[in-house]
Amino acid sequence: MPATKIYLDTYGCQMNLYDGELVTSLLDADGFIMTHDEASADVILINTCAVRGHAEQRALGRLRTLAAQKRTRRELVVGVLGCMAENLRENLRDQIPGLDFVVGPDAYRQLPNLIQEQLNGHSGTFHYVHGAPNETYSEVPPLRREGVNAWVAIMRGCDNFCSYCIVPYVRGRERSRSPQEIISEVETAVAQGFPEVTLLGQNVNSYTWPDLDFPDLLGRVAEIKGLKRLQFITSHPKDLSDKLINRMASGGVLGASLHLPAQSGSDRILKAMNRGYTSADYLRIVDKLREAIPGLALTTDLLCGFPGETQEDLCQTLDLIRQARFDDAFTFKYSERPGTAAAKLEDDVPEKVKVERLERMIDLCRQLSHESRQKLVGRKVEVLIENPSPKNSAEWTGRTRCDRVAIVPGNFHRGESVTIKVAEVRGFSLWGNRI
Ligand code: SAH
Ligand code: SF4
Ligand code: F3S
């Protein structure tokens, strides 16, 4: 019998992408073949996100289309993975008849068996599988596509329970992986030809292991031979220590970029969000960071339209944006997530007002981000080369230490480190010749 071909599609954040690589590894070890051709696949897996209603609607739409295809592709097996799978569980069976199984983010070890059962003719028996609460996928080596950056999870789950957020409900309690495992995974990635590593966690600053905290871990990973660049996401402001700032300031392979979600500039709203800091606390951290790390690119997440948010609260967020001078920002409208603490509050900011506020945040952030790129014109920056430019075969693209996209004329190889002089800003990218 020919080997079973599996197509996997992943939505959501970097953690979900990393999980996709774990799934690929588990299936590969069991003899399944991963394919990029959806049309000829025997099994289609959709790895979903649940963070906003829109993310779920997209995934549901995709699953409905696949379930409909099963009428003509009778043998096709369709499985739902990821955060929406855990969020909606058995409800998915009623919403979309035809799905074969639903597997939460901590239950992927069971996937090969589940798929085999379906192929053996147990189709039609719907399964929901909830994972082990302490799962860290020890000894599952992620199977990555080729590239420059390798994701390495240092922890799973989240205990912060920001009142708007579904993640702690779908990814369970926070647990750290052992430093030995993390280091060995980074060493493997480097040996496989990935010069850049990004350490992942919902709140990396609360990483904990006996006698070792996150800045210590960073120090250990930074020493790994052959590693050219080390990044990490996401940092939570309430847990960002001076020790981390000092570690980042030591430079070396540590990139000069930090993603530090602020969410809001209104203390009233931050409190209702259960974020554990005030706007003044946030700005104090920003001052320290900017002073300690020259050329730092500070990025953030901002959320408008939280229940009870007024124009005044929004103005305070705009003030915070101006004072923090974010180099880039991801901006969102509040989306009520059933089951979260905030869902008990009335979602009282009208959609039209949310859109207006979102646009105001976007306009300001765009302007700051443009200014931040312009400031680099004339500067010498180091670029880690990634890919030939899709627009011009005589140029390559890469990323600077502050994680900006740069375009460099010439011929390079992936993973090469070059210094360029920035001549101009082209759209969202820097452009300059090698020096
Ligand atoms: N652990 C990370 C990522 C969380 S999800 C962190 O703490 O930053 C990424 C972003 O999605 C969040 O920072 C927040 O801005 C946004 N988000 C989370 N829940 C949301 C919701 N219910 N509606 C709109 N945006 C949300
Ligand atoms: Fe969600 Fe807050 Fe945890 Fe981030 S820290 S995943 S926003 S609960
Ligand atoms: Fe990530 Fe979405 Fe889950 S943001 S953790 S894939 S809910």
Q: What would you note in describing this structure?
A:
This protein has 435 residues and is of the alpha/beta class. Among the domains are: 5-131, Methylthiotransferase, N-terminal domain (Rossmann fold); 380-434, OB fold (Dihydrolipoamide Acetyltransferase, E2P), CATH 2.40.50.140. 34% of the residues lie in helices and 23% in strands. The protein has 13 helices and 21 strands. It has helices at 14-29, 53-69, 82-88, 91-95, 111-122, 167-171, 179-191, 214-222, 242-249, 267-272, 279-292, 311-324, 351-374, and strands at residues 5-10, 33-34, 43-48, 77-81, 101-103, 127-129, 149-153, 155-156, 175-176, 196-200, 208-209, 212-213, 229-233, 257-259, 297-304, 328-333, 380-388, 395-400, 405-409, 417-426, 429-434. The strands form six sheets. The chain has a six-stranded parallel sheet, sandwiched between helices. Strand 3, helix 2 and strand 4 (77-81) form a beta-alpha-beta unit. The longest helix has 24 residues, at 351-374. It is globular and about 65 Å long. The model has no long low-confidence stretch (mean pLDDT 96). Residues 12-13, 15-16, 49-51, 82-83, 166-167, 171 line the site of FE3-S4 cluster (F3S).
